[in-house]
Amino acid sequence: MAIAACAAAVLLTGCEGIMSGLYDEPDVVSEYGFTVTETTMSHGTIYINCAGYTHWVYLNFEAETADSVDIVAGMEPPAEWDLAVHRYDPKTNGGSVAMTDATDIDDYVDGGDVPADGAFVADVMTDSVIATDMSGMMDGVIVYTQDYYNTELAKWLDVDTSTMPPIYTKNDNVFVLRTQDGRMYALRLENYMGGDKGTTKGYMTIEYRSM
Questions:
Q1: Mind giving me the DSSP string for 2-29?
Q2: What predicted TM-score, i.e. pTM, was given to this entire model?
Q3: How far apart are CA 10 and CA 99, in angstroms?
């Protein structure tokens, strides 16, 4: 599968200094992107490294590519993409997302109803969610960038920062991404940790299936 050559190299920046005890530093992993595809069902798995805070990973479901883009360096996103993830923060490319009650992606696609139009939530612009520098968090200083953000798909992982270390609670529900041109994909967050040891936060394993 086509995977951006820089994905394994540029997504390895973790929090340092006093933050190292709260946010795990990324491990090196040799393979990212659309790693498994069961073509008979169009069912696959996406594995991406979002451990750093300075990158978006742009996903193109038709091309099965995952492109890492450094937002601090001012890199441009790819021309074609459907979904992007920063840490755990998602955005769509003019699309929208609905959460379902299902927890099994295959059962849902085979027998579930497509969410009603009113259930789909479009992205919103935010300047207080997409953090690019967490090094001053203990002093109450966090640097954010302005960007789009999908509040519905963001429900796939709750990060409670009212305590230290933060408490992570994964949502097992299936979400439906509707792209700008009307394609639909069922998504489910399978895991939010990975790396060589399998315990580094910020690595995301996402089940997907076209609808």
A1: ---TTHHHHS-----GGGGGTSPPPPP-
A2: 0.81
A3: 31
